[in-house]
Design goal:
273 residues, alpha/beta, Glutaredoxin, six-stranded mixed beta sheet, elongated
């Protein structure tokens, strides 16, 4: 395994080091494999695009280049029928692929299906600031997005602050999220809509619903889930099954890998059945 033209995020890989450079590495970050050959015209068109995007990603994903002339066994193993053939590996398994020289815009869209950008230092600072000064953090996220319009991690965090301030523009911000975070954004859209629809009330169930929603929005996720589940158990039929629907939206907003999600799904199943 060698770096390609000195770029740390682009490597030339062969049959000997494929397991380490691709399979093992894909448990840490997505690895994209470009099967190519020197004589292939479309490969010469696609190769520089892939290398440029990998370098710009700064480790969010890496590129492994496999010369099929020198590594025919690898090409056969992964059923390469034509080149360039590009395959993405996540957690040791191929998760996406395409064949042929796509334009850069389509390659970017393809990458968005499995690459999630790591939060940068600015995002981490703004998250910490949001604990003490929501307004300042909101301004910071708006400024960050003006220079990084495709930073969906920042966009999602910005929208959560808007929801906390009951700002109706949160939904339109969330609708711009794409790629791996789109599913979470859909959950937050449901929560934002519910927050705007349900107002404090003397009705006991409406009050409990609003309280659970508010603490979840304030990022006390465990308490919010517990409160909403209690309402599901006590008054599932209230407001057209709103508590159960919102409970599911909360799980969607947290994302499938959040540690609260799997146990909460089991708790909901036990409550319903």
């Amino acid at each position: 395994m060698t770096t390609h033209d000195g770029h740390a995020y682009v490597q030339d890989v062969d049959d000997i080091d494929f397991a380490t450079a691709v399979i093992d590495a894909s448990f840490d970050h997505p690895v994209v494999v470009d099967f190519w050959a020197p004589w292939c015209g479309p490969c010469r068109s696609l190769g520089p695009i892939m290398e440029r995007l990998a370098t710009a990603a700064h480790g969010d994903w890496t590129l492994a280049k496999v010369n099929v002339d020198q590594n025919q066994a690898l090409a056969q193993r992964f059923n390469v029928q034509g080149i360039p053939a590009v395959k993405a590996f996540v957690d040791g398994k191929p998760v996406a692929e395409f064949t042929g020289a796509l334009p850069e815009s389509r390659v970017v869209s393809w990458l968005e299906g499995f690459v999630q950008a790591k939060p940068d230092e600015t995002t981490a600072v703004l998250e910490a600031l949001a604990v003490t000064d929501i307004v300042a953090a909101q301004r910071g996220y708006a400024a960050l997005l003006s220079t990084q319009p495709t930073n969906d991690t920042a966009r999602l965090a910005y929208a959560r602050l808007l929801i906390m301030r009951n700002d109706s523009t949160a939904i339109s911000v969330l609708q711009e999220v794409s790629g791996p975070l789109k599913e979470q954004a859909a959950g937050w859209i449901s929560i934002a809509a519910a927050s705007q629809e349900i107002h404090p009330s003397e009705d006991q169930d409406a009050h409990a619903y609003r309280a659970a929603l508010d603490v979840f929005i304030a990022q006390d996720y465990r308490t919010g889930l517990d409160g909403m589940l209690a309402l599901v158990i006590r008054a599932r039929a209230w407001n057209d099954d709103a508590a159960r629907k919102t409970f599911l939206a909360m799980l969607q907003a947290l994302g499938a890998t959040h540690p609260l999600v799997a146990p909460a799904r089991k708790e909901l199943a036990a409550a319903l059945f």
